[in-house]
Amino acid sequence: MPSNSARTVRIAIVGGGIGGLFCALSIHHHCSAAGVPLEVDVYEQASQYKEIGAGVGIGVNAARLLHKLNIGDRLNAIAGHRNGVWIRFSRFDNSEDICTLPVDDDQTVRQAPCARSDFLDLLREVVEERGAATLHTKKAFKHVEDQEDTVRLSFADGTTATADMLIGCDGIHSSVRDSFVVDKSVFSGQIAYRGVIPIASLQNWPFKTYSVAWLAKHRHLLVFPIARNTQLNIVAFVTKSASEAAGIKESWTSSCDRRDVLIDFDGFDEPARQVLSLLPDQPSKWKLNDREPLDRWHYMSGKVVLLGDAAHAMLPHLGAGAGQAIEDGWVLGRALSEHLSSATRSPYFTSLESTAQLYQTVRLPRAQKTQRTARAAGNTYEMQAEDMLDKSFEECIPMMAERTKERMKWVWEEDLDAAYERVRDLEASS
Ligand SMILES: Cc1cc2nc3c(=O)[nH]c(=O)nc-3n(C[C@H](O)[C@H](O)[C@H](O)COP(=O)(O)OP(=O)(O)OC[C@H]3O[C@@H](n4cnc5c(N)ncnc54)[C@H](O)[C@@H]3O)c2cc1C
């Protein structure tokens, strides 16, 4: 890859989801500031840049990075508001409080629970407004070839593209990852029913805040407000065996009859059942998978890098997967701009490979900790952790409350720029 030269650097991003579009914005932001001439192409397999259904909680760690890109106000304008409560955990059978965890969301930089479609639209609009990348559709990546200084990408439609660097942001079933790693997604033992309902359709709703999780053994129901508190995002988790989950996909194409959801949540208190009874006739039904942690995120001498779910797909129980993809994009953008502009002295910037290694060294431990903690959180919420298996619901309740109180602190409070600079400068001074 050309470094510190006038030649335009070509970057190919495969996958135009949250990770891919944020990465394009971050690279543009950092490289424009450093005066690096750049051409970024995003290759998305779908026919449009669109998310359907459901919500996504953007944690304050990720929201902070959107504010650094000067789109924080636009993020807040599409988000829901949790009114000072991150979440209230309730008993499934009578909605009594198990523990209520506060969040400081009166600040400008705050949690941003959004409709996924609004959030992706925001990222796409900003990419277009800033000319951060050329967005391609119907480009399903198939194959990458090492051509010494460049890589050649092949797509399912028979076309090819050449780039100095390929960033694989193509999700949990990443084809870019598959080109280098032999592994499979791992079934979590849970499925999730998902849907969104208008908050105005709820009658006699007893909670001041709408962020509530009702917990039972093997089942839990999570709801939170999105879209300026006009819509309620619903995710209903149930433990299932591999044979029960066979045939369910990890996508919006799997759905079920609403009656199946009500059967699975039999015995839940009235407010929870009201929410479920308002789901569409055919709510979406997801198989929840993640991946085992992967210890290498860059290949072909740094010309290929993995990002987001392609590098570290995790279970949704911390609401942190999208935020981790956003953190990846921020760090990769910073590292690339410093490598390409030679503005910063650090042995990491002598080659693209060591720059990719810097990105991995900063991001991998934190992303893998999030992956592991998300698994543990799911087991705790469903009271399936090793030491809860032989305990009753009543015995599990205090254990669950204790384990949950501090769980999100380290996810949200990270100073990512300081962490990046620490790693970068440590190497420089050693
Ligand atoms: C039930 C559930 C709830 C969740 N809730 C939250 C939450 O509240 N907060 C949170 O932070 N995270 C949440 N997550 C996780 C979050 O959705 C993911 O971590 C995040 O979307 C990852 O972004 P990504 O861009 O890496 O991958 P994706 O969002 O999967 O995007 C990948 C993109 O690549 C495209 N693509 C795939 N293959 C190819 C190919 N071969 N060629 C070209 N393009 C390709 C896809 O079409 C897609 O557009 C949740 C996940 C689930 C399942």
Automatic annotation (TrEMBL):
Give TM segment ranges: none
Which GO molecular-function terms appear in the entry? FAD binding; monooxygenase activity
Q: Which domain of life is it from?
A: Eukaryota
Q: Does the keyword Oxidoreductase apply?
A: yes
Which keywords appear in this protein's UniProt record, sorted alphabetically?
FAD, Flavoprotein, Monooxygenase, Oxidoreductase
Which cofactor(s) does the record list?
FAD
Which InterPro entries would you find in this protein's record? FAD-bd, FAD-dep_Monooxygenase_BioMet, FAD/NAD-bd_sf
- Domain FAD-binding spans what residues? 9-345
Record bears the keyword Transmembrane: no
Which family, according to UniProt? Belongs to the paxM FAD-dependent monooxygenase family.
Q: Which protein is depicted?
A: FAD-binding domain-containing protein
Native source species: Salinomyces thailandicus
